[in-house]
């Protein structure tokens, strides 16, 4: 950025918001909405409202069911316009399913089950659908809620969590497509590393390569008792379908596109930008340690690129919570861990700005997308008497960055294509 007067923190914020706009559901769906008119549209997930809006602009008047998280405003056209005249919107729980999720699961099964052979269903799927669409199988809703909470707290990644959830559901793991005689076409926005169709929203319309044995292995790996789930997995009940001949699914966007859009924004402003990768997983603290080592390498040796440079990474980290955990999420935890890592080095955060945010606008148990670190973040924290390591130990990153006034609040964005970590080294 040499010589430029732009505030680096605002440049990173601008890159994040511009990237969200560049990969908006409407833009990504547009090339895929031609062809035969569907007989029914089902939109599920954190991006369900904008995805449904785009589809109904192309296919006005088609009956539709939209399943969206609580707190997400319905499309402004609903329910007065012709396009939304036959739309039912159900708000449901996330990340833990609730009664709204069960209502949504029941409605989806009924609506798809009523379609005849030869008819067509268009399913618009985005992340968050695993919790939003719920039809408990082998367990009660309360038992499934408790198990979902345990999986989230123990640090299981999304693949492990969904492996368990889809084997306790009549809609996940291909169950939704199995329930209809109609042809099913699914367009998917991916929030899962590697874009595996069977894991995004737990794959309600695609064949499931996992089995009850795989689900049991996850419970064993984390030492979870879950007696009702274990009994069902061993009961001999029919497993999820491994073939669905009249169902096709396509990933239309994911984390890589988000990073490339952010890269384009920064490059247009004269910032050399490298994408480190879009497949980062694992504990947020371990991911922070890796990024700290890369930052030190740039500062001390000019590799993998000399300063000034922006480094982008994607994927999705996890956080293993203790019994007295505070408030936060993977992006806030990453930023706080990075601050503590760099705080003990000679160069520290000198000339370093970092944005860590989720594309959905909601980071874990917080009400923010994430945060922005600045070169003076540690000094400002010390001036307020805040010990970053103490906040990190109790997983209370939200309170830490709230005290600094550095939380990045966007509200729910209507997107869900993974996380962005952007490091700008002047």
UniProtKB/TrEMBL annotation:
<protein>
    <submittedName>
        <fullName>Hydroxypyruvate reductase, putative</fullName>
    </submittedName>
</protein>
<feature type="domain" description="MOFRL-associated">
    <location>
        <begin position="12"/>
        <end position="227"/>
    </location>
</feature>
<dbReference type="Pfam" id="PF13660">
    <property type="entry name" value="DUF4147"/>
</dbReference>
<feature type="domain" description="MOFRL">
    <location>
        <begin position="309"/>
        <end position="419"/>
    </location>
</feature>
<dbReference type="InterPro" id="IPR007835">
    <property type="entry name" value="MOFRL"/>
</dbReference>
<dbReference type="InterPro" id="IPR025286">
    <property type="entry name" value="MOFRL_assoc_dom"/>
</dbReference>
<dbReference type="Pfam" id="PF05161">
    <property type="entry name" value="MOFRL"/>
</dbReference>
<dbReference type="InterPro" id="IPR038614">
    <property type="entry name" value="GK_N_sf"/>
</dbReference>
<dbReference type="InterPro" id="IPR039760">
    <property type="entry name" value="MOFRL_protein"/>
</dbReference>
<dbReference type="InterPro" id="IPR037035">
    <property type="entry name" value="GK-like_C_sf"/>
</dbReference>
